[in-house]
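Priority: low. Protein: CubicO group peptidase, beta-lactamase class C family. Input follows.
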Amino acid sequence: MKFSQYFSLIALLSVFVSCSSDSEPSTETGKSGTPPAVTPVPTETYFPPISRTNEWETLSMETLGWNEDEVSNLYFFLENNNTDAFIIIKDGRIVIEKYFGDFKSDDNHAWNSAGKNLTAMLTGIAQEEGFLNILEPTSTYLGEGWTNMPLNQEQNITIKNQLTMTTGLDYTVEDIFCTDPECLNFLNDPNTFWYYHNGPYTLLDDVIANATERDFNAYFSEKIKEPIGMQGLFLKIGYNNVFFSTARSMARFGILNLNQGNWDGTSILSDKEYFNAMTNSSQNYNLAYGYLYWLNGKSSFRLPSSEDEFSGSLIPNAPDDLIAGLGLNDQKLYMVPSLDMVIVRMGGASNEEFLGPSSFDNELWELINAVIE
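Result:
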């Protein structure tokens, strides 16, 4: 069954300046009769400094025992599928960092729906700080009349429903990005069906802003962006609130996730119960979906713009414990705890334009496996 196609969000803006990679240390070959020096693989996690953002330790493929002969095939595939930036991080260190065409390391790119991960974590932080409870009705923070439904139906929708795509709001409307009340109509009772409906998700930003009485960008910057050395900004594009940053900033957020909300001893999100709920199946209708996170290794999955359920794992070629942020035009943030690995891909659509997961994921992981195995 083919994935349903959706219309695209196109936005190219520059926001802040990031950084370029450090040179990679070399390993000298021993003289005749002396074995070559062996560089040990680091076992501790490295956190790139937040005050010196141009610094980032590297790790060679040779040290890791990766197959460097397969890298050219990986680059060929990426370049021929409209990639702008590609990074592989192992144990916090850069192993591969490649930019294509005119795109540079300090250029900013839209995350599109991969940015949903940012909102999910920020929601957990706001709950941890006592500003909201995800089990409360959304109307507690948006007021009555944020939908086009009778009040008794509207009050059944909770913040958790927004996080899990189970609001029951009508996804057959002309524009599922629309956040105006007239676009938000009853279709199903909450918690009875999963559908990738962008409008209710986007309103989470207003929930957080109203609950904290802070500008959304300012609260995000204080709680996540600045403490881990990211740069970037959420910008309004039509109804959507889209995050733009460098590829390295996306990689930093990936490292934060692999360390379950902790950055080099600083707790960004301390609530482990929330983090675990966010990164595991959040409901029974789409096992491959947490709190706005995509999950691999489940027995079935559903996709954006579709009512169908598909058997098997979301990305069969990827590790089962992979969690991900997946955005329109193949923006990819892969996080693999078992490998302590973060992979970032930014660029244009590989072929058809999918809202999140696409066939590109599985093709890309086949080539990644050839390198890392």
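Residues 198-212 form the longest helix (15 residues). The chain has eleven helices and 13 strands.
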